[in-house]
Amino acid sequence: MASGTKNKSGKGSVKAARSSVVAKKGVPWGTIAAVVAIVLLAGGVFGYAYIQISAAKKFTVSEENKDPSTNIPGVVKKEYSAGQHVKAAQRVAYDQSPPFGGPHDEAWADCEGIVYPTAVRSENMVHALEHGSVWIAYNPDKVSGGELDKLKAKVEGQPFMMLSPYPGLDKNISLQSWGHQLKLDSADDERIDQFIKSLKRNRYQNPEPNAACGPLGPGQFDPATPPPFVAEPPGPDAVPMDGKAPAASGAPSAPAPTGAPAPTTQAPAPSQ
Q1: Beta strand 161-165 pairing with 112-115
Q2: DSSP H or E run through 15
Q3: What is the pTM of this model?
Q4: Could you give the 3-state DSSP secondary structure of residue 123?
């Protein structure tokens, strides 16, 4: 009996010792902290990726997002009738400066990633916009050096892009696509890339997004010696925005527009 009691007592002591060891181990806080950190890191990575994808879609043209520029603060929009041509000797009394729609020259400006060192006749530049290009204009008295290099990098060799000085521009930089304009102060403004992504060759916003943008034949538009920009306001013989040549010009009338231009609209500028 005594022997049996001793054995039972020994087993109980071993069990109690094991329980004591387990109790002394405590909660593995280090492991828990590491797991939590990994979960938070993974959540941050996926969250950042989601934000980036959402931002990309915001300025991507699609059936559901036909004009992504509506997401860009400061963009001015107008409706213009397309296909209204004027002759090389004619000027158009544009309603905007720089213009971004309306009657234009029969010959389009070369817009295959061209950086024009001098200002170009607006009537040719507007025709290139009709084909789906983006025109970056800058005030040569305010933009030079590194700022100008940043703009050149966005245009050189890029199809359906063109850059030129625009004397007298009321802002440092102005971006144009057909029916859209955005004026800015800095070449570092993220809205430049947003504008280009939203509107270059946008099949829903440009009248002829599949038209050619490269150089024309001899005698039409030479990108090496383009028709020069004229700073003086157009005279009474200029073609008005409705496309009808004034009687004083003696030139044939261009096709009349199908409707009056819609009022200019502008998205709210970002808070400073």
Answers
A1: parallel
A2: helix 2-25
A3: 0.73
A4: helix
